[in-house]
Amino acid sequence: MNQMVKTQNSRSTVARLFSQLKGQRIRLTVVAVSIIIYIGLSIYNPMYSALVIDHLWQSIQAAWNDGIPFSITWTNMGQELTQLSIQYFFTWIFYYLQSYLMANVAENLNLELRNQIAQKLNRLPLRFFDQNKAGEILSRVTSDLDKIAEVLQTGLLKLVVAIGTIIGSLIVMFYYSVSLTCIFLIFMLISMVITQIVAKKNLRCAAERQETIGELTGIVEEYYNGRNVIKAYNHEDESLKQVAAAAEKNRMANQKADFLTNCVNPLIRLLTRLANVVIAIIAGKAMLDGTMTVGVVQAFFQYVNQTAEPLTEASFMINSLQSALASANRTFELLDHEEEIPEPLNPAVLEHAKGNIAFEHVSFGYNPDHLLMKDISFEAKPGQKIAVVGSTGAGKTTLVNLLMRFYEVNSGKITVDGVNAAEMTRSGLRKNFGMVLQDTWLFSGTVAENIAYSKPDATREEIVAAAKAAKVDYFIRTMPQGYDTMLDNEAANLSAGQRQLITIARVFLCNPPIIILDEATSSVDTRTEVEIGKAMKELMSGRTSFVIAHRLSTIRDADTILFMEHGNIIEQGNHKELLKKKGAYAALYYSQFE
């Protein structure tokens, strides 16, 4: 039963892979025509060479018997040899044409799949990225697609040519000698049985190899990003051991797959050589008996090689195709993964929100069976500052993620100016927000380009004004090329505080009606924090703002403080009101100032 399911899955994967080629029908048609002509010439060439060699042998014998020197003229063998040369030349032309076009088809397919995956990644929910390592995802975009393209442009082409050549050659071989062809087929049947056994095992090994590549890539990517932490805690040896263990696992999987892919070739070649020896002995006797001519014997051996070699290639390529099939299956698994909830057909549009935010009986859980938030309700009026506090893991960032629709609520609704956020497009909703995360992210580019990420069409004057508001202009001007200084390698040449300031400047630049600050000043010193606080106060004036903070001294002026615990809001009110309650907020506040 499992084998039947695997076969059906393999067939559906192959069918889907070829459905991706529907946009390249012209190229594939030319490839198909080239293959047909190439196979036809490959089959006809030995037959014609048999006539040429027999004619040549007869001419040599006639000259010998007449006692005159043998010579080749245009009428005597010249025309036949010229025609044979032209046939071989066109055989090469059509082989080159099909190879070139198939490589083009494979690379276009690779590009198409990469584009589909790129678009798919933008539609996947954050839950997918939470559950999969970045390295594993990257391996599907790189090594898996490269494997598909490599095998398609070489393996599949050779396999199709091999099948056509084998069928045509066997027909002619049977025409020349049934007994010799049967002897050859016995040896080849043994080869095919061996190939089939190896191919089944190779499919499992190929899938295991791609999985281990993904695991290894994920570990390396994770440790590279955390290299400073690894060094700080003296975990270099341990991390090396884990990388070595993953690399060893990948090596063993590669060893198995490569052995199964390559071991079959020498064995089949040995069987082919044994078949040649047996056929040579019998064919030699047939020549002596006069039942086969010299030309026919050499042509038969050409067909033996034309059939045996493709069989050898076919066995190798079948095993390689198993590896490509495993890669294609992993690629389609990614493309079939559950996406975000589709955008509404007639979305509500909110160009310039006033900033009235309301959570109405919202419930949410990363796993629907285990809710993290239950019946959350609160309202933020335009221009208010809402502080979200609580211990680590209380659900503060989750609340903000729901506000930005990074995750969808299980029940209830979130409204912006009375409009249900679920009735808006995600991009339309997020245009009204500016967000500064605790984990900064800067891309390879200039400082100006990084600040302008929130507003790509911003002028240099606007960028400088935003940098001044974020108290980062002076520092930028001390850099080698100022605002045109290139940042690369995750801006490793900047301090954590400097990177944070640049991300804060992005928010100043886009000038949104609603602001979210997730520990936005956690990486800056106290003096800089005071300066940013002044600028932030001016920025937040007249705008709704959500501030996640651990240091309660920074949010005492908040209009509403939400104290969260285990995903739920257990207290809400302003600073004075919560202190009077002498509850969880008061206990946390006094603990920070004792």
What does this entry look like structurally?
Mean pLDDT is 82; it is low at 1-7. Helix 6 (143-176) packs antiparallel against helix 7 (178-225). The chain has 594 residues and is an alpha/beta fold. The longest helix has 54 residues, at 236-289. 65% of the residues lie in helices and 10% in strands. The protein starts with a helix and ends with a helix. The protein has a six-stranded mixed sheet with strand order 6-9-10-3-11-12, with helices on both faces. The chain has helices spanning 2-19, 25-66, 78-123, 126-131, 134-141, 143-176, 178-225, 227-232, 236-289, 294-335, 396-403, 426-430, 447-451, 460-469, 473-477, 496-510, 526-540, 575-581, 584-593; strands spanning 357-364, 373-380, 385-390, 411-416, 419-420, 433-436, 445-446, 486-487, 514-518, 544-548, 560-565, 568-573.
Task: Summarize the main sheet.
Answer: 6 strands, mixed
Q: Note the beta-strand portion.
A: 5-15%
* Shape verdict: elongated
Q: Tell me roughly what share of residues is in helical segments.
A: 55-70%
Main-sheet strand order equals: 6-9-10-3-11-12
Ranges where pLDDT stays below 50 over 5 or more residues in a row are 1-7
Structural class: alpha/beta
Instruction: Please state the average pLDDT score.
Output: 82
Q: Cα distance, first to last residue?
A: 69 Å
Q: Count the helices. How many?
A: 19
Q: What descriptors fit this protein?
A:
12 strands; disordered N terminus; 19 helices; alpha/beta; 65% helix; six-stranded mixed sheet; 594 residues
